[in-house]
């Protein structure tokens, strides 16, 4: 009887640890680079999209500008959203590539959508103006708001 009780207690502790440990890990605050598990040095191009319909997709191939954008993105600290409420519309979206292989996709809304998963921004402020200004600095034809 004692062995059975001990075994039940041990299994309960292990199961609870796994359950609560995994749940806590997923809701931890992280930078975008930690969520995506992609080496930023692997990114060779970024394709920007304008959800307002004012601009055609723009491909950024310049490594220095790509790195600048990645640094700007990694200032955000995000946390996986527990319950997602639908929203309508978006202004900026970007696909990240290594050559022709798509690595990830981010829609810059609040919450951020990264490859179909939603994340609340807990540090940093999503700014449409900063995004537009960055893209326009790389592509003077990009129309601002």
3D structure, described in words:
The protein is built from four helices and eight strands. With 145 residues, it is of the alpha+beta class. It has one domain. An eight-stranded antiparallel β-sheet has the order 1-4-8-7-6-5-2-3. The longest helix is centred in the N-terminal third of the chain and has 25 residues. It is elongated. 12% of the residues are buried. The mean pLDDT is 84.
Helix content: 25-40%
- What is the number of helices? 4
What is Rg?
20 Å
- Coarse morphology: elongated
Q: What share of residues are in beta strands? A: 25-35%
Distance between the termini: 72 Å
Question: How many β-strand runs?
Answer: 8
Mean of residue pLDDT? 84
Strand order within the widest beta sheet: 1-4-8-7-6-5-2-3
User: What's the domain count?
Assistant: 1
Q: What does the main sheet amount to?
A: 8 strands, antiparallel
Unreliable segments (pLDDT under 50, ≥5 consecutive)? none
| Succession of helices and strands | HEHEEHEEEEEH
Q: Helix/strand/pairing class, anyone?
A: alpha+beta
Short description:
The protein is an alpha+beta fold and 145 residues long. The protein is 36% helix and 28% strand. The protein has helices at 2-26, 32-36, 63-73, 128-138, and strands spanning 30-31, 45-50, 58-60, 77-80, 92-98, 101-108, 112-114, 117-123.
